[in-house]
Amino acid sequence: MQTNIKEYDESFDLTQALQKKGTKEYGFIHLAQRANGSWVNIPIMLAVGAQDGPTLVVDACNHGDEYEGTEGIIKTFEGLDVSKMKGSFIGIPALNAEAFAEMKRYNTLDFVPQDLNRIYPGGTGPMTAYVCSWYCENIIKKADAVICIHGGGNSEYLEPVVLYCGEESPVAYKSREMAQCFGFKVLWKNTRYAENSGIEDEYAYQMGIPCITPEIGGQCTRMYQRDEHKQMLETGIRNVMTLLGILEGSVPANEGVHHYDIDYIYNRNGGIHVPVKKAMDSVRKGDTLSIITNLFGEEVDRVIAPFDGVVIGYWTYSVCPPHGWVYMVGKPVDGE
Ligand SMILES: [Zn+2]
């Protein structure tokens, strides 16, 4: 089988790669060898426009089981005509390629497993922290805008939602514009950037780069909505490319969006998790969100809505661990 996969090493220079105007290429950036001699890679897809313009970086699989973004990036890359582009699309279809292959949220080959999207800007080790720091230094810092795609992974359902920076600054306003044009109807206004939680969009914001985080799907949606979600991501990415002037045309209006401030709701005891409230259900403070039973059918916990809001996501795996995030509930944001 023939492939067109390029091999790059750690000295890969995005600035130099962007000089190859009007070309498309893709390949693996080799970062380090495992003990068995195989490589830990970052896969990269480069669609360099024929004319100068901004660079949009789009990544997926910070969490290895969130494949919607992977497929959305591949589909977007395939559909781009670089001869008509003013600027470039850089796709990272699986940043956490180890976890991607393991079909897990984390790379369990790390001696101490890390949540990649909680450790930005990374560090020297373990491997996942190094992937993070290499990516920050060599790719994100050279971007004009970033889209990091997440989703429900193997265990959660998520209503399609786009997180944007809700701070008051030109970079935040650009992030909001990107979220607005993406096409999803639920927007997540994040005003907690000061918490320094090691999340990619927060890191990008600190670097002065507008960033959004679309979240979509999960294993429970893939039987029927896989193609639909892939299409929604391609449309959203292309809309942002149009907003940035990389693609020609005007950005379609996205009417009827709702802005929420979204909180994770935790259970206490693990067990068999039965959701009562489902996606986009309105809830009142005190309502039962889900019931958790033990192996004998006895109720061991009940997850209660802590405020009035709307269910944006929830744990769909039949079993939940203790003190897990089993619900995401959004409070409507006034004045948006
Ligand atoms: Zn994620």
From TrEMBL:
The keyword Zinc applies. SUPFAM superfamilies: Zn-dependent exopeptidases. Residues 52-241 form the Succinylglutamate desuccinylase/Aspartoacylase catalytic domain. It comes from the Bacteria. Its cofactor is Zn(2+). It holds the Pfam family AstE_AspA_cat. One of its GO terms (molecular function) is metal ion binding. Keywords: Hydrolase, Metal-binding, Zinc. The keyword Hydrolase applies. This is M14 family metallopeptidase.
